[in-house]
UniProtKB/TrEMBL annotation:
This is Peroxisome biogenesis protein 22. One of its GO terms (biological process) is peroxisome organization. It comes from the Eukaryota. Pfam families: HAD_Pex22.
Length: 225
């Protein structure tokens, strides 16, 4: 009898803890995103690119945090599942509020979408960050996404495409294989961005950012670069 009472008490405690956990997590993510986009709205040159990259990275780490929490709390499956759903809701709402109206977005693959950070690494393997998938799927609901990267050989490009395909990104319809573009130089990536004229661009190369920021004032203002 005492054991049953103790079990019921524990179950009740776990249930009571679900709502505050989700509420705290949602508020934390909302504050992070709000801060990042406050920077975006006030610095529409090279800094805004870094801020947008920060948004993607922040989303990635937020998703990883929830995934890790779910793994640590296997005995509280209902709680962890609710936390994951809450994070999806926050991510979807943020993408809708900030990207709705944007027609096109370009993004570098290395260091953002992929674990690898150099073309040399792509000659051996291409590893997609699992947590990036949800972020890309949400953003792709509101604008076209073009992924661009410098590679040294065709085999590297095939590895990247295979990694993206295995993740299921092409099946969703939000990301298309012919919108994954490859070039042999950083200038080639820069040229792609200028030709596509995106509303947003994410890049980890400071030189690329500075050259984009050095374009005409009208271009910088119009495309939030």
């Amino acid at each position: 009898m005492g054991e049953s009472s103790s079990s019921s008490s524990l179950s009740l405690t776990q249930q009571i803890g679900v709502a505050p956990l989700i509420k705290r997590l949602s508020k934390h993510l909302t504050r992070k995103f709000a801060k990042i986009f406050f920077i975006l709205s006030n610095h529409k040159i090279a800094g805004s690119l870094g801020a947008l990259a920060g948004f993607v990275i922040a989303s990635v780490f937020a998703w990883k945090f929830v995934r890790a929490t779910a793994g640590q709390r296997r005995r509280q499956k209902q709680t962890s599942d609710a936390a994951v759903e809450a994070t999806k809701a926050v991510l979807g709402k943020t993408a809708k509020n900030k990207f709705n109206g944007a027609r096109k977005m370009t993004c570098q693959l290395l260091g953002v979408i992929l674990e690898e950070s150099s073309p040399e690494e792509l000659q051996h393997h291409a590893t997609l960050r699992p947590s990036v998938v949800e972020v890309l799927l949400e953003i792709s609901r509101f604008c076209d996404i073009y992924l661009i990267e410098k590679i040294f050989d065709d085999e590297s490009g095939e590895r990247v495409l295979l990694a993206l395909e295995n993740s299921g990104l092409f099946k969703s319809g939000g990301l298309m294989k012919d919108k994954v573009l490859f070039c042999s130089t950083d200038n080639g990536r820069l040229s792609f961005v200028r030709q596509l004229e995106p509303d947003w661009h994410v890049d980890t190369n400071p030189d690329t950012l500075s050259q984009l920021a050095g374009d005409s004032e009208a271009y910088v203002h119009e495309h939030k670069i």
